[in-house]
Amino acid sequence: GQDKITEEAMVSALFTAEEIAKVLDTRVAKTNKRDKPFTATDSDDASCNVTQGLTVESVGKQYETFRGTEMLLGDAKNPDAQVYQAIAAYSDKDAAQTQFSTATDEIKECDGKTYNFSDPAGTKVPVTVTVSSSNAKRVNWALAYGPSTYRCFVSYNGVANVIVQTQFCARSNSKQLVQQMADRIVDKLQLS
């Protein structure tokens, strides 16, 4: 493995729209590429904003390079599902691990909590956080939105000098899928 990772290696480790379409047997309607993380949606419990994947709250501000994609599946206007994947690279392993530990502790504190955020129409939406597993290298959690069957499954992984995050949002259980995606991205980065 290597200690430093190039931007090219980061980009080539992410899934392409074609790969996602094949794995999920659906059409990728739109892909948005990102070179900086999202800002979490305002909520009534800011300490749990870290659970909204691919945000400044989860990757911090000390990263050197951030590459991610958001894919809308099915129909761009009313997607059946959304897939997010991102890699944040830091100056060294210590910087990445510090951010990973800080965010992981915050995420675990939110296990079992419900907080409300306002959707674009201004309606309060309750979100319940359930952490399903965590160890020194990864934490996985689910976000359930009110009474709907819509769920997001997130995998947050700290490896060498990077943090790899995958997230899948749909009206179905995708817990295994996010970890498989994250594992494959980590494998492709060839960090040992």
Question: Could you outline the blueprint of secondary structure elements for this entry?
Answer:
Blueprint: H1 7-13, H2 17-24, E1 28-34, H3 56-59, E2 65-73, E3 81-89, H4 93-109, E4 114-118, E5 124-134, E6 138-145, E7 151-159, E8 162-170, H5 175-189
Antiparallel strand pairs: 1-2, 2-3, 3-8, 4-5, 5-6, 6-7, 7-8
Short synopsis of the structure:
The protein has helices at 7-13, 17-24, 56-59, 93-109, 175-189; strands spanning 28-34, 65-73, 81-89, 114-118, 124-134, 138-145, 151-159, 162-170.
Q: Report the total helices.
A: 5
Quantity of strands, as a count: 8
Please write the string of helix (H) and strand (E) elements. Answer: HHEHEEHEEEEEH
- Give the overall shape, derived from the CA principal axes: globular
Distance between the termini: 5 Å
Portion in helices:
25-40%
Question: pLDDT below 50 for ≥5 consecutive residues: which ranges?
Answer: none
Radius of gyration: 16 Å
Largest sheet: 8 strands, antiparallel
Mean pLDDT equals 88
> What's the arrangement of strands in the largest beta sheet?
1-2-3-8-7-6-5-4
- Beta-strand residue percentage: 25-35%
Protein structure class: alpha+beta
Write up what this structure looks like.
This protein has an 8-stranded antiparallel β-sheet. The protein has 192 residues and is α+β, with helices and mostly antiparallel strands. The longest helix has 17 residues, at 93-109. It starts with 6 loop residues before the first helix and ends with a helix. The protein has helices at 7-13, 17-24, 56-59, 93-109, 175-189; strands at residues 28-34, 65-73, 81-89, 114-118, 124-134, 138-145, 151-159, 162-170. The mean pLDDT is 88. The chain is globular, with a radius of gyration of 16 Å.
